[in-house]
């Protein structure tokens, strides 16, 4: 096949495509495409404020150090708690978003959170059973746990390996910072 | 209320939670009537997205009925049937004032690189999502819209992300008449991107995946040629052969962080979480594009660095375009296409799951069982 200036021929003509595919070419003109141009000035958004009112911060809310302030609105799902919360708050307080260690610490905190969640949910159900005299249920859900997707031994080993690696990296980061402080 | 609740990787349940309350004057509380599970929810489910907290509720695709409004809400009233874009945005910050709603600077304290998204970890702001009976909707005068009378409930829920994102992805690819377009991924976003590429005048549309049910849907719904990458030793070489050895003019990555097809990338990206995902599709996309071509990235990747073949992208002079979709900007034109019969979103829906059974739904969707392409979630129907 010679390499020439010509484009390889298409299997169908525009008319054939228009006949076969409903709407073919309806947005041929980029002016009809709502994402063109990428930036538009002052679109009608429905907002009736210049700066939104500030949502009340009922408890200290962790935030990126790349923000100048707590954003006017923020999510309040699952506030930080326990050891996972300590790791998360440390990560947000200490590292910018461009630092990989920030994200690895957050992933490590997620794993700690999952373990903490299991511990507290089983303890809660036993306590509840002791008070109410009912049969303990399996965790806080009334929905029985569904079988997990089957995971191979290699897969499990790799997953555990990732936790260990994240722990090592987090430990190194903490040691490095402790060293910096000691050197001051 | 009943709500899907994350307990750890591969472990979700339905639990009792408090009905969310108004926390800001422009909040609304919406009673969810239909939600969806998105392919990107699986990244959370698999523990890939940093700061995904136990006890949080996923779900960024939902429609419902307004249950309560805050004191400054003007445009919505209790009882309105609303569709809610997956973006949470203020409407007036530097980015919103330029139409970049998905990049709002006023809604995500946890990270400046990402905007606010319902039910998508604290990395996108720490909001609970719509796979529940009720959900808090911030900036109710900005994001949600009343569902048009003519619009089907399932079509409406697909407009809140999957359809809008596929359509946006095709636009980012800068398709011109006669262009050869390759779409990696035949999930809902890939299918919608492929279908939308024709609207923009594509001359050929090729979809690549490895799940036969999805490839069949790509042929029937998106009128596309299809390639199963597991049937070819080297899918990039195969696609080069199919394009006169030049490569495709425009390539769309509609796969993202959990791509199959390369063991090393899969292990380091998906298993070990040492990358922000497994960039197999992205690297194939870079190598499939012709020199001077355009690459549109709809696939979601995490914030951890990812091993992308950037040298190839540079040497080939590619234009890389990517973003989360500013959903509401797409709606007026999308609605026209729907009314004209050019797009029928709920053609990709394969399963409707009661909220109480959502754990099975995640498992089925994650393992691509039972021909699952797009599962919807319906509260209160167990």
Task: Note the main attributes of this structure.
heterodimer; A: 184 residues; mainly alpha; B: Quinone Oxidoreductase, Chain A, domain 1; Rossmann fold; transmembrane helix (chain A); transmembrane (chain A); membrane (chain A); oxidoreductase (chain B)
Arithmetic mean of pLDDT of chain A: 82
Number of helices of chain A: 4
Order of helices and strands of chain B: EEEHEEEEEEHHEHEHEHEHHEHEHEHE
* Largest sheet properties of chain B: 7 strands, mixed
Main beta-sheet annotation of chain A: none
Share of β-strand residues of chain A: under 5%
What fraction, in percent, of the residue positions of chain A are helical?
A: 40-55%
Q: What percent of the residues of chain B sit in helical stretches (DSSP H or I)?
A: 25-40%
From the N-terminal CA to the C-terminal CA of chain B, the straight-line distance is 14 Å
| CATH architecture label name of the largest domain in chain B | Alpha-Beta Complex
CA-atom Rg of chain A in angstroms: 27 Å
Instruction: Give me the count of strands of chain A.
Output: 0
Helix/strand-derived category of chain A reads mainly alpha
- The CATH topology assignment of the largest domain in chain B is Quinone Oxidoreductase, Chain A, domain 1
Q: Would you tell me the overall average pLDDT of chain B?
A: 96
Shape of chain B: globular
Keywords (chain A): Membrane, Transmembrane, Transmembrane helix
Region (Disordered) (chain A): 1-65, 117-154
Transmembrane segments (chain A): 154-174
Biased composition (Basic and acidic residues) (chain A): 30-42, 55-65
